[in-house]
Amino acid sequence: MSQVIRIEDVWKYYDGRAVVKGISLSVNKNERFVIIGPSGSGKSTMLRMMNMLVRPDKGRVFFKDVELTSPGVNPIEYRKKIGIVFQHYNLFLHMTVLKNVMFGLVKVKGMSQELAKKRAMSALESVRIGKNLWDKYPSQLSGGEQQRVAIARALAMEPEVMLFDEPTSALDPELTGEVLEVMKELARGGMTMVVVTHELGFAASVGSRIAFIDSGELVEEGTPKEVLFSPKKERTRAFLEKMWELYKIEPEW
Amino acid sequence: MLGLDILMENWEVLLKALGYSLLVAVASFSIGFLLASAATVVRLFSSFRLPRWLVRGYVEVFRGTPMMVQLFFIYYASPSIGINLSPLQASIVAFALNSAAYQSEYLRAGMMSVPKTQYEAAESLGLTKWASISSVMLPIALRASLPSLGNELVALFKYSSIASFVTLPELFYVARYIAAGSFRYLEMYLVLALIYVVVGFLLAKAFRRVEKLVFVPGLMH
């Protein structure tokens, strides 16, 4: 299986405190790699290292065969191949929906306006954002709609992998469904995905591999069945018990 | 009517003088804006300390000294280093440099009101630092700074009266001349004040049009 993203013993310190402590993992093509763990465990920081939005203080990051952390490599060149979707959508506030999706195509890929428009329209249609919203500004959309536009913006760049940083955490519960549905469609289409989430239902049904991260350490990794339903480590167990309780689901152990 | 005849008798000179006042205001505002944009980007985004410090020093010096001193310095001191500026040139240069310092502070405030996540989103699409700043951060910051910038334009229009002290025949200079020649001080200065109020109001109005033109729903809270 071919690796799309690999991180090797990455560390990150903020104010002298380590928030990511030597995590190594690799994500293969067509895989849905789901990362779970408590808030503040370093999951988002780790995800941001995968496209070098956060530069690790130690360790190495690879995109396919290229070491992004190597001094001779400019990670900007590879960002267009690594899509990312943020918790708070981060749509460009001064651009319409359509312009948001066209922006990267024109500015980074150098596409003509017409071609970018065409591509943006089909990306928006694929996340079911209808024509009536294309000329609206982000603030005029619901959270769920904004997040789907953000997915379209990343998708339009035709990335080889998509990173999701708690894509539904900022949404009202009744809006998470529409975003998760779009993500499931992406998964079915074979998109390589790395998803940081608290949605255990999504992790169980869509994830091909699950990693549990706590206090900046990779505690446990395996199939959804292994990690979610028969965790080996006590820390994983304690976390999941709390989570399942939230979902009113009785654990099997 | 009080003042009307003085206006009728001198409208040609006053109109020309108004032209000078507006020219100084608009030219120094525009040049100041370009300088301020560059200064703000350097101050907030340069990876090097020295240029950041230079910009800060520039802002402090020009905010910390009277405009009149700056104008006199440029008009009377520059010939001694071989630069001869006309009253108009010296006024525009002095006001532009002064205004750049203020405008850069307004732009800095605008820039700091833009969520950092906007920059992150641009970067994550593969944009370079400069492209992220110029096509995402600046357009948003600019919209946030527009009300302050409008203020600055009106202020410059009023401060252009200082240029009379380097003999630029702008509104205040001409008004003083007319008043002294006719001994109609009250009428002349009333008319002068009225001209400043009306034109200042129109400038502010024009600026609000620009604000409306680039308005984006939900951007400014």
From TrEMBL, chain B:
<keyword id="KW-0472">Membrane</keyword>
<dbReference type="GO" id="GO:0043190">
    <property type="term" value="C:ATP-binding cassette (ABC) transporter complex"/>
</dbReference>
<keyword id="KW-1003">Cell membrane</keyword>
<feature type="domain" description="ABC transmembrane type-1">
    <location>
        <begin position="18"/>
        <end position="207"/>
    </location>
</feature>
<comment type="similarity">
    <text>Belongs to the binding-protein-dependent transport system permease family.</text>
</comment>
<keyword id="KW-0812">Transmembrane</keyword>
<feature type="transmembrane region" description="Helical">
    <location>
        <begin position="186"/>
        <end position="204"/>
    </location>
</feature>
<protein>
    <submittedName>
        <fullName>Amino acid ABC transporter permease</fullName>
    </submittedName>
</protein>
<dbReference type="InterPro" id="IPR000515">
    <property type="entry name" value="MetI-like"/>
</dbReference>
<dbReference type="InterPro" id="IPR043429">
    <property type="entry name" value="ArtM/GltK/GlnP/TcyL/YhdX-like"/>
</dbReference>
<dbReference type="InterPro" id="IPR035906">
    <property type="entry name" value="MetI-like_sf"/>
</dbReference>
<dbReference type="InterPro" id="IPR010065">
    <property type="entry name" value="AA_ABC_transptr_permease_3TM"/>
</dbReference>
<keyword id="KW-0029">Amino-acid transport</keyword>
<feature type="transmembrane region" description="Helical">
    <location>
        <begin position="153"/>
        <end position="174"/>
    </location>
</feature>
<keyword id="KW-0813">Transport</keyword>
<dbReference type="GO" id="GO:0022857">
    <property type="term" value="F:transmembrane transporter activity"/>
</dbReference>
<keyword id="KW-1133">Transmembrane helix</keyword>
<feature type="transmembrane region" description="Helical">
    <location>
        <begin position="20"/>
        <end position="45"/>
    </location>
</feature>
<dbReference type="Pfam" id="PF00528">
    <property type="entry name" value="BPD_transp_1"/>
</dbReference>
<dbReference type="GO" id="GO:0006865">
    <property type="term" value="P:amino acid transport"/>
</dbReference>
